[in-house]
Amino acid sequence: MRRLVIVSNRVANPACDQAHGGLAVCVLDSLRKRGAMWFGWNGAIVTDEAEIDVATAKFGDLTLMTMPLAERDYREYYLGFANAALWPVHHNRLDLACFTQENIEGYRRVNDRFAGTLMPLLAPSDLIWVHDYHFIPLGAGLRARGAANSIGFFLHIPFPTPDVLVAMPEHEWLINSLCGYDLVGFQTKTDQANFCRFVCDFMGGEMISDEVIRVADKLVSASVFPVGIDVDAFASIAKNPKATKLIQRLRSVRELRMNVIGVDRLDYTKGLPDRLRAFKRVIELYPQNRRAVTLMQIATPTREDVRAYADIRHELEALSGEINGEFGDFDWTPVRYIHRRIARDTLAALYRGSHVGLVTPLRDGMNLVAKEYVAAQDEGNPGVLILSRFAGAAEDLQEALIVNPYDADEVAHAMQIAINMPLAERIERHGALMARVRQQDACAWMEGFLDALADCGQRRANMDPRSFCVRS
Ligand code: ADQ
Predict the structure, then answer these.
(1) Counting C-beta atoms within 10 Å of the first and last residue's C-beta, which end of the chain has fewer, N or C?
(2) Residues 111 and 165 both lie in one domain
């Protein structure tokens, strides 16, 4: 079997599997089985570029190669271009995007450094899989150094419509870099269609089949691989004795009366203020919910060095305080807001103990919380998933109550339906959702991508070697 080389911004540490989500655990499992190298940032920041060095750690047949970022790189590449330009543009938030020449140069510099560091570590037969928006030009950097390997890229976040994308400086350079990969994977059909439309309408590309585009002298495959979770692992932690005990304890003190749960990184794309406003409406419109229904919102701190993230935190704190002040009582706190990371087994128990899972991002590549909520339920008495139509997961999870997250009354109405849904309907919807979550689990995602990449490698082997060139 050919060695797999994964490149991603952060590298999961196999020594602390428990800290990772189902996805990382399943990916780590497959990597250990097939022999692999995982290359990326180790999360450290050094003051000087001269201090940047590659560290190696071996876990059986899995080798981790990681390096730090210099302070300037962290500022310009990570906070600047990746998280304050690419992230908002890809989530339709042009109003929050900040473009500076320094940040674009920082992004190019770090991608070039990672490509230059990786190149001598590669064998000609390696399959290379690059992940996410941090490393869009990395494949082109490897090609420019002579790599003839099969190189694939997976975009975890949405791909914007062409009219949004063209607002970003250097968009042609970026998309041309994407076209240097043999295979580009997307979460949804909509993302794949947006990419193909851009390449055909703005870059002279031509679709030669549903999933293959010819651009200049290159062929690039663009396919859909919805990310999934390790369903059995998650379902089993949700019903282990520790989880059951936690649910019983919370129920006994009436902390989980009729509980609605939301779990997210505290990101402006996740629609948290809109969600709180919808919860306020469910109390206003349906007064029988007072003292009976609670929203537990768990929001992990994230990217706090980016201004927009500090703003959203303040907005959320103000809103939850406002709702609790207006409606709460000595024995009822309508909104429980928890601003920290929660252990996975506790999280699984909280999903299982909650009657409604409220997943209402304004835009999301996939959203694994929706799938985790489904996997954690008791199939004999499951809760109800409410899902934003703008989450990638909604393309498949149609048996959820699908809502428009911008419409507070619509979301409140869906909550009211969920709260009162008869058991038979809950079981039917959950059974259908579980089948879909299981069909598209983490292993199916990974194997689907790697099989497609190997096929592209075959195409590459049959092609004229001159067509491997990528214009820089
Ligand atoms: P994220 O934007 O991080 O991922 P998501 O898919 O929801 O979003 O995954 C979040 C993960 O973090 C889940 O596994 C969740 O359980 C965990 N998590 C969130 N809050 C937590 C907390 N307080 N404590 C512990 N764990 C917590 C990006 C894209 C998504 C895409 C994924 C995977 O933005 O659209 O689904 O990558 O491709």
Answers:
(1) N
(2) yes
Rounded Cα distance, 369 and 296, in Å: 14
Residue 244's pLDDT band, with cuts at 50, 70 and 90, is: confident
Same domain, 212 and 238: no
Mutation test of ligand 1: which of 23, 230, 363, 368 has the most ligand atoms closer than 8 Å to its C-beta?
368
Catalytic pick among 364, 396, 413, 430: 364
Atom of ligand 1 nearest to the CA of 369: 7
Residue 323's domain comprises: 231-439
One domain, residues 128 and 235: no
Residue-wise pLDDT for 396-427, tens only, equals 999 999 999 999 999 999 999 999 999 999 99
CA-to-CA distance for 447 and 453, rounded, in angstroms? 10
What spacing in Å lies between the alpha carbon of 76 and ligand 1's midpoint? 24
Q: In the chain, pLDDT over 70 holds for what percent of residues?
A: 95
Spatial distance between the Cα atoms of 59 and 42, rounded to a whole number of angstroms: 16
- What confidence tens digit (pLDDT) does each residue in 114-166 have? 999 999 999 999 999 999 999 999 999 999 999 999 999 999 999 999 999 99
**In this structure, are 187 and 279 located in the same domain?**
no
Contact 106, 128 (CB under 8 A): no
364 is catalytic: yes
pLDDT of residue 469: 39
Q: Could you tell me if 137 and 245 lie in one domain?
A: no
Has 305 been annotated as catalytic?
Answer: no
Same domain, 142 and 253: no
* 177 and 242 share one domain: no
Ligand 1 pocket, Cβ-based, cut-off 6 angstroms: 21, 156-157, 227, 263-265, 298, 300, 341-342, 347, 364-369, 372
CA distance 163 to 141: 27
Q: What angle do CA 127, 143, 159 make, to 5 degrees?
A: 75
- Residues 27 and 158 grouped into a single domain: yes
> Cα of 120 to ligand 1 centre, how many Å?
33
Q: Mean pLDDT over residues 56-65, rounded?
A: 91
Contact 96, 86 (CB under 8 A): no
